[in-house]
Amino acid sequence: MSGDIGKVERGEWSSRVGFILAAAGSAIGLGNIWRFPYVTGQHGGAAFLVLYLLCVLVVGLPIMVAELTIGRFSRRNPVGAIEVIRPGSPWKIVGYMGVLTGIFILSYYSVMAGYTLGYIGKTVARSQITFADFTANAWISIPLFLAFSVLTVLVVQGGVRDGIERWAKILMPVLLCLLVVLIIRAVTLEGAGAGLSFYLKPDFSRVTIKTVLAALGQAFFSLSLGMGAMITYGSYLSKKDNIVTSGCYVALFDTLIAVMAGLIIFPALFAMHMDPAEGPGLVFVVFPKIFAAIPGGNVIGMGFFLLLSIAALTSTVSLLEVVTSYLVDERHWLRRHAVWIVAGLCFCLGVPSALSMGIVPALGDLPIPGGSILGFMDWLFGNMMLAVGAVLISIFTGWVWRVSRAAAEITIGYPGFGRISVILSFMLRFICPVLILVVLVFLILDAF
User: CATH code at 77?
Assistant: First the structure.
């Protein structure tokens, strides 16, 4: 069936560079700059880094190519894409899962993203308020959450070219420049060499099965797979674009940002004689102490939290676009109405997550995975639902649509792909589903 059946008038990236920057921005988020360093620190440094890079190549890249191909073939959102390929089949549920996952992730992710905005001002003002007191103040947390939600809407309502692509071309270079400046400052701190050794010289004797599983989970979750974002962004690709090389560039860009974040964090940690296995509090608790103790620390801190804010914004934009694309394509809503209504819904859904960070203590100490409303939302939607979605996309492409049909779409922009399509077929049909299912089992066992 042609991917143009049922097609509606919709946007398209103006250039391949615009797509790569936007898609990389979708993948790059707090998971790269906040989560990656502390998970790396908890699992031995350089050995974890090597395993993470291998997992991106083996698991992340094949599923990314599959999602982009589904999107470009169908020219639709996750729900419409499945309907184009398998009309009337129950597989459309996978698309609905992606849309719902996008809504719920955006609801709590914007809460955390709001904190990064607040910490820019906190660092400049040299405020001594602790992270616990900061998040427990409703007059700080809720307005920051609202402000970040509005920022996201202002980008997405501009559409594909004038909104998402335009701002990606501005924000992503700024992100890279900030990273480079902060790396230079971090590696020149006295004692930074020990941090570089920890991060870049692998000791494989420290590798355990938990290290491998953590690397696999981080590689998978950092690429924004399983929620339909890459299907949506792929639907705006031109037929002449090479899906494989574009996907490789996105994965490379995403991985590069995570690796660069480590080059800031570990030299600074070791220079200040702090524990690299600090955990989730690394960015909001440990780093302000580091910035306060080094010359020019308030300026460096402001740059660091600006970096986090930009990374978070490029991710929230893609989350909102998944849902907006569905409403525009399938329900024929006006884009400007869709973005404000969805953002309003996500704000309402996110309020309990914001309250659970100390404003209402009872919501932050619960006998559920994650321990709080926000933690549970991240476990369920940011981990479990993404993994389930990616397994189903892998199976759908490999066994239902079949890689031979996906390969025909890829070959339009990459004539030589047919010779290597057997590799993609093997990965999607056998390797990716098995490895992601292992991660799923690990997540469930670890939570309970």
Answer: 1.10.4160
Please calculate the CA angle 88-440-313 and round it to the nearest 5 degrees: 80
- Whether 43 is covered by a domain: the verdict is yes
In a domain, 2, yes or no: no
DSSP 228: S
Q: Is 7 part of any domain? A: no
- Cβ atoms of 355 and 109 within 8 Å: the answer is no
Letter for the amino acid at 396? Answer: F
Give the mean model confidence (pLDDT) for residues 7-17.
70
Structure tokens at 354: 């914001």
The residue range of the domain holding 351 is 16-447
**Band (10; pLDDT cuts 50, 70, 90):** low
Q: Is residue 133 part of a domain?
A: yes
DSSP state of 172: H
| C-alpha torsion angle, residues 95, 157, 28, 244 (rounded to 10) | 60
- Please give the tally of structural domains in the chain: 1
- Quick: pLDDT tens for 119-136: 999 988 888 898 999 999
Please count the other Cβ atoms lying within 10 Å of the Cβ belonging to residue 349.
15
Vertex 303: Cα angle to 297 and 305 (nearest 5) = 100
Residue 143 has a CB neighbour count (10 Å cut-off) of: 13
Write out the two tokens for 214.
């953590």
The rounded distance, in Å, linking the Cα atoms of 58 and 333 is 39
Q: Which residues of 79-100 are buried (b: 16+ CB within 10 A; e: fewer)?
A: bbbbbbbeeeeebbebbebbbb
Residue 7: predicted pLDDT: 41
The whole-angstrom separation of Cα 250 and Cα 244 is: 10
